[in-house]
Design brief:
The chain has 6 helices and 3 strands, in the order ββααβαααα. The chain has helices at about 35-55, 55-65, 95-100, 100-115, 130-140, 160-170, and strands at about 1-5, 15-20, 75.
Length: about 180
C-alpha cells in the first residue's frame, strides 16, 4: 500500500489516503482541486527523490536533488515515472524513455550495476590508472613490439585522404583500416 498522511502541497490541506500498488488509479476533480499536486508534486516527486537517494554520490551529482513534499507520512512509494499528456516530440526516434527522461536514469542504473566484458576475449573489463598502464608497458621484455590502436573514423564511407596525409605528417607509419 501507498500511504499518505498530512499532505499539504500547494492547495492540498492535510490530505490523507491509502492507495493500492500495482493498480491503475485515476484522480478526477474540478480545476484547482489538487489532482496535479497529489499526482505530480507529491507521489511522483517523492518516488523520484527516493530513487535518486538510492544512487551513489557520483550519480546524484548529475541528477540533482528533489525537494521532499510537505507531509507527515509518505510510505510505500516505489520509484516513479510520469508521462504528461502534453508531452510530445516531433523527433521520429523519440521513445517513451527519451521523452520522459527515464532513459537518463536507466543509463546511470546500468552503468553502475553492469559489469563490462570484452566482446572478443570474454574477459571482464576494469579501469586501470595511468601509472598501472605505464608499469605494464615497462614490464615488457626489451625489443617487444607494442601496437597502440585508437579509432579515428567509424561508420563513415569515403577515402579520407586528408586524414592519411595528416597522419603521415605526424610521423605515423601504419594505419589499420577495416582490420587490415
Amino acid at each position: 500500500m501507498i500511504e499518505l498522511k498530512g499532505v499539504s502541497v500547494h492547495n492540498l490541506k492535510s490530505i490523507s489516503l491509502k492507495l493500492k500498488q500495482g493498480e491503475l488509479i485515476v484522480f478526477t476533480g474540478v480545476s484547482g482541486s489538487g489532482k496535479s499536486s497529489l499526482a505530480f508534486d507529491t507521489i511522483y516527486t517523492e518516488g523520484q527523490r527516493r530513487y535518486i537517494d538510492s544512487l551513489s554520490a557520483h550519480a546524484k551529482r548529475y541528477l540533482g536533488n528533489l525537494p521532499k513534499p510537505d507531509a507527515t507520512l509518505l510510505e510505500g512509494i516505489p520509484p516513479t515515472i510520469a508521462i504528461e499528456q502534453k508531452t510530445s516530440s516531433h523527433n521520429p526516434r523519440s521513445t517513451v524513455g527519451t521523452i520522459t527522461a527515464i532513459y537518463d536514469y536507466l543509463r546511470v542504473l546500468y552503468a553502475r550495476l553492469g559489469e563490462p566484458y570484452c566482446p572478443i576475449s570474454g574477459e571482464k573489463v576494469s579501469p586501470i590508472s595511468k601509472k598501472e598502464i605505464e608499469r605494464l608497458i615497462l614490464e615488457q621484455p626489451e625489443k617487444t613490439h607494442l601496437i597502440f590502436l585508437a579509432p579515428l573514423i567509424r561508420s563513415s564511407k569515403g577515402e579520407h585522404k586528408e586524414l592519411f596525409v595528416d597522419l603521415i605528417k605526424k610521423g605515423f607509419l601504419r594505419v589499420r583500416v577495416d582490420k587490415e
